[in-house]
Amino acid sequence: MGTPLDTREAQAEEVLDRLYEEYPDTTISLNYSNRLELLIAVMLSAQCTDERVNKVTAELFEKYDDAEDYANAEQEALAEDINSITYYNNKAKYIRSACSDIIEKHDGEVPDTMSELTDLAGVGRKTANVVLQHGHDIVEGIVVDTHVQRLSRRLGLTEEESPKRIETDLMPVVPEMDWQQLTHLFISHGRAVCSARNPDCDVCVLEDICPSSKLEHQVDLASGEAW
């Protein structure tokens, strides 16, 4: 029990097979109806729950129609509209700046390349990957959020610590056709079972191949700390 497979490739394949069966319908949980709304929702979701973001954007997307609306909004007004979101002042600045660039440099359309997206204020590789995957149907990498970061280390798929290095380390190990779904599967499992502080190893479908299982091991490989 709690013994990973011999190679990271085999471990990744088995983990994915089991999670596909456990969460067959998992997908992005942010609500949006176009690429700009997707971009803004993902920007707002940094260090904030998707549930909270969806509550805020339900009204936000009614008030602001396009990039010009956001770019021309007063900083204080936009910040007030998203004030229940973490770091709302900074995020309001990023949204206004990003939308200004979208108008001036991209004819009002959300760009479709990694370099152009990450040139926008407040847009890192994680956000750009989400927008490319769900807005443009372009899969260039793996979205590494806190759940992917935790589970990939906990399951012995990587020993890297930063999201960027984890993504680079996972890409040769995980089949490219699974890059997009890995994120959703890990998020679903992280929320339902493999939580940060108290994972429910007793009911986990991955327990027997998990080198961090509390039932068999004394150390959480995600944090490097004892259970």
Characterization of the model:
Keywords: 4Fe-4S, DNA damage, DNA repair, DNA-binding, Endonuclease, Glycosidase, Hydrolase, Iron, Iron-sulfur, Lyase, Metal-binding, Nuclease. By secondary structure, the chain is mainly α. It has 11 helices and 2 strands. The protein folds into 2 domains: 101 residues, Orthogonal Bundle (Endonuclease Iii, domain 2); 101 residues, Endonuclease III, domain 1, CATH 1.10.340. Strands 1-2 form a two-stranded antiparallel ribbon. Strand 1 and strand 2 form a beta hairpin. Helix 2 packs antiparallel against helix 8, helix 5 crosses helix 6 and helix 9 crosses helix 11. The longest helix is centred in the middle third of the chain and has 19 residues. The mean pLDDT is 97.
Give the tags.
227 residues; Endonuclease Iii, domain 2; Endonuclease III, domain 1; two-stranded antiparallel ribbon; 11 helices; 2 strands; elongated; nuclease; iron
Low-confidence stretches: none
**Biggest sheet strand line-up:** 1-2
Q: Please describe the biggest sheet, giving its number of strands, its sense, and whether it closes into a barrel.
A: 2 strands, antiparallel
Total domain modules: 2
GO molecular function: 4 iron, 4 sulfur cluster binding; class I DNA-(apurinic or apyrimidinic site) endonuclease activity; DNA binding; G/T mismatch-specific thymine-DNA glycosylase activity; metal ion binding
Domain HhH-GPD: 44-192
GO biological process, one term: base-excision repair, AP site formation
Binding site for [4Fe-4S] cluster: 194, 201, 204, 210
